[in-house]
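TL;DR need structure tokens for one chain.
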Amino acid sequence: MGSSLAFLLGVLQLLAATMAAYKKWIPNTNFETMSNWDKGRVPCASDVIHFEKDEVVSVFVRSTHALTDMYLPLNGEFLLASGSGFTAFDGSWDPGCGSGAVLSFGNAEQHSWFNPELWQDVSSRVDLEPAGRIFLLDEERVPCQYDHVIFQPETSFRVNLDSSRRVIPVQSISLMGQELSSAEAWAEYLRGPSAAWQFHGNATLQVTGTRCPHSSGCACGNSQDGDRICASLLRAEGCPALSCHSPLRPLGHCCGVCGAVVTLDFKPEFDLQQYRDRVVQAWLSLPRYAGVQMAISKVHRAQTFLGLLPRSSTPVIQIVLVDGEAGTQTGTAAEQLAADIMGDIAQHGEALGIPGGSVEVATGSALGGQAAIHASRQIASGTVLGLLFALLLLGALLYLHKKGKLRLQALHLPRLWNRAEDLNSPEPESGKGFDNPMFDMELPGAGSVEETLQEMASEGHQVFYINPLYDPSETET
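>> reply
TL;DR here they are.
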């Protein structure tokens, strides 16, 4: 026990000096753990112990136990601590045991690696973080690719590694009182006798021994198993009902939230840990934000073509803010904190390595900002869908026309077309000299201009000619 305590103290001391996250596996398959037995208690001397014969299990035994009878599995192991073991029951009366019963060992096969409820984050920096104010997104509650994994010393366990990936990377794994932080050390452990009873499933764990290389942080890397994580977390209950309008769905989280989501662009010099400490010290520790909780991490935001077709992804910093307000006040404190953060970025963003950002808000008020954002998204989506429908319709018409099943009539626009031709193709100049703009019109009648003038003269009309080059005022001198 002393060595186990020393090991845990050593790990906790290491946490204060590093930025890495440490995730501890909670369940175990110890003999003395009451929840591992179907009767909810540890077997006593007059009980009969039953293991399924096909059960694959590793069981750690911490002390000595007297038994009446025990049915063992065909494939498994018992890890005996120093001084522990089993003895035959001598028939003496045990006041705490009664007449005895049949106790069956629970099935540990359902303990999935991707169940967030089976992990505990033990990497909180108590000196900087108010208790209970920092939370993790659901995908980050499971060990990420650069996290350290801890299996408690003097415990046995069995983990289901079924995954959408073939390999699940972590930085290091601590078990049986030793830390394995290299690929070679982990490969040697897997060749040992206990690994086959501790880990099973279609994926394998990989110890990389490398830390996140970026000061801006690294994405968790569990998005491929996001559906599996949410299925383990929610089971049949589903997401809880929320009192805000149009709840937000942060990236990496299983359910919607009320509050605010701040999305920040960043430059290479951005430091995630320093900025996290800045938000905690400058705002989150203030009395007016006593009920606000924050999650901050790097995530990959999907980029789409026309708002629908996936194209690529880009890394961003996501800050999720939730509060404990109720009714119409739900999310209002988180909204105010988001406004303070954006105001600080407007003043100091360039120095912090943050060129810009955006905010989405969902509150209990009918005037919440998310409603407008949601409406604009609906309009944009409707426009995109309309364009796609028009393109599909045009493509269908062309296809039918090409197959001879549809005859398209040509459209003629004579006036617009002729006018365009007149502008683009002027008539060639004749040898008349120049055109008189004052007589660029056709006189009534069917004859020529000369015939018309002769007719007018014969009827007694006077005919005058105006010379635009002659000014009578110039001769009056």
